[in-house]
Specification:
Length: about 375
C-alpha cells in the first residue's frame, strides 16, 4: 500500500508539472488582441514664433483730479466724458473769504510800503537809525509775503486739468462742500496708451525693445498693433515672470484704461515643428510622449503592427494642434486617439474612419 501511494503521488506530481509548464508556455506566447486606434502621418511645418500673454491697458497719464483745499463748489466748467486740454478750468471753489483777506493784506502791504518810503527818506537825511529802516523793510516784505500766500490759496481753489485727456464721470455737484483731497473727476490721456503684461524669464532673451506686438479684446473688433517699450528691471521672485510694457498709438481710442487684452509678441524667425493633434500627446509628470506605429517583433519571432513609446519636446499649441520640436520625425505614423489604453509594444489596428480635431484655427459650432 505504501509503494502504491508513493507511485500515485509521483505520477500525479509529474502530470501537474507538465500541465504547469504547458500553461506557462501558453501564457508567454499569448498575444492580446490589437487595440483600435487612429493615426496620422507626421508632417513638418513652419510656425511663427509668437508668445501669447494676458495684459491690461493703462493710460500714459491718468489721475483722479482732487480738491487741493477745502471749499464750496461755486462753478463747474466741464461735462462728463469731455476732452480737455492742459490748463483748462474744471471747477472753481468759493473764494469770498480769501478775497476779503487778500484786500486786508494788500492794505497792510500798501501801508508798509509807505512806511518804508518814509523811513528811507529819513535815513537818507540821517534823521533815523539804520535799525528803524531795517524794521520797516522787514515789515514790508512780510506784508508782501502775506499777499502772495493768500493769492496762491485763491489760485489753488481754481482746479485745472494737469494734462490733456478725456474726463470721466463727474463726482461733484454745484454747491457741494469738498474736503481737501476729495475726488472730482477722472482724467485719462488715451493717446498713446500702455499695455502691461508679464512673460516668463526664459523668454527675455527672445524679446527686444521695439519688437512688434498685437492685442485683441472682446471690447473691440480687429487688432491693435504696437511695440514693446520697456522691461521691468526686476524679476518677480514668486512667479519668475518679468513685467513688460508696450505702447500703442490708440488713434481710434479703442484701448481704455483697465481693459483686459490678449497680446501676441513676435519672438524672431519661424521655427520648424511637427504638428500633431493635441489628443496624440500623453502628458505625464516625468515627460510628454507619443506612440509611434511600426513593425514590432514578438517573442515568437514574428512581426506585427505595434507601437513604440517616444518621449517628445513640445513647443506650444495652435488651435487643435500642438508643435513637437524633437522626438518625432516627418513621415512617422503617430497614434492620435486611444493613447490612454496603449503600452509599449502593444498590438494595434488602425481605423481612421473618424479622426480627432486637427485644425489650427477651429471654429466651434456653438461659438
Amino acid at each position: 500500500m505504501l509503494a502504491a501511494v508513493i507511485t500515485f503521488i509521483v505520477i500525479l506530481g509529474t502530470v501537474k508539472t507538465f500541465q504547469i509548464k504547458a500553461a506557462m508556455a501558453q501564457g508567454a506566447s499569448y498575444q492580446p488582441p490589437p487595440e483600435a486606434v487612429t493615426t496620422v502621418i507626421a508632417k513638418q511645418e513652419e510656425w511663427n514664433t509668437t508668445l501669447g500673454a494676458i495684459g491690461s491697458v493703462a493710460a500714459v497719464n491718468g489721475v483722479t483730479v482732487a480738491a487741493d483745499l477745502p471749499g464750496l463748489v461755486s462753478e463747474i466748467d466741464f461735462t462728463s466724458g469731455q476732452y480737455v486740454r492742459q490748463g483748462d478750468v474744471l471747477i472753481r471753489l468759493d473764494t469770498k473769504q480769501e478775497r476779503a483777506q487778500l484786500a486786508a493784506a494788500e492794505a497792510q502791504r500798501d501801508l508798509a510800503r509807505l512806511g518804508l518810503q518814509r523811513t528811507q527818506s529819513l535815513l537818507s537825511k540821517s534823521l533815523i537809525a539804520q535799525s528803524e529802516y531795517d524794521t520797516a523793510a522787514a515789515t514790508y516784505k512780510s506784508a508782501e509775503a502775506g499777499v502772495g500766500q493768500i493769492t496762491a490759496a485763491i489760485a489753488r481753489k481754481t482746479i485745472r486739468a494737469p494734462f490733456s485727456g478725456t474726463l470721466g464721470i463727474r463726482q461733484v455737484n454745484l454747491g457741494q462742500y469738498l474736503a481737501g483731497g476729495a475726488p472730482i473727476v477722472s482724467l485719462q490721456a488715451l493717446q498713446p496708451a500702455y499695455v502691461n503684461f508679464t512673460v516668463p524669464q526664459q523668454e527675455l532673451g527672445r524679446l527686444r525693445v521695439g519688437g512688434s506686438i498685437e492685442v485683441t479684446s472682446d471690447g473691440f473688433a480687429g487688432t491693435e498693433t504696437g511695440r514693446v517699450a520697456a522691461f521691468d528691471s526686476v524679476v518677480d521672485e514668486a512667479t519668475r515672470n518679468v513685467r513688460v510694457q508696450a505702447i500703442f498709438e490708440n488713434r481710434d481710442l479703442k484701448l481704455k484704461p483697465g481693459m483686459f487684452v490678449e497680446a501676441q509678441l513676435a519672438r524672431g524667425a519661424n521655427t520648424p515643428v511637427i504638428t500633431l493633434p493635441v489628443s496624440a500627446i500623453s502628458y505625464a509628470p516625468f515627460g510628454d510622449s507619443v506612440f509611434i506605429v511600426e513593425d514590432v517583433k514578438g517573442p515568437n519571432g514574428k512581426s506585427y503592427r505595434g507601437v513604440r513609446q517616444q518621449f517628445v519636446k513640445l513647443s506650444g499649441s495652435r488651435g487643435d494642434q500642438v508643435g513637437v520640436v524633437s522626438g518625432v520625425k516627418p513621415g512617422e505614423e503617430v497614434v492620435t486617439s486611444g493613447v490612454f489604453k496603449l503600452r509599449p509594444g502593444a498590438a494595434v489596428t488602425v481605423n481612421n474612419a473618424i479622426q480627432p480635431g486637427n485644425n489650427p484655427a477651429p471654429k466651434p459650432e456653438d461659438s
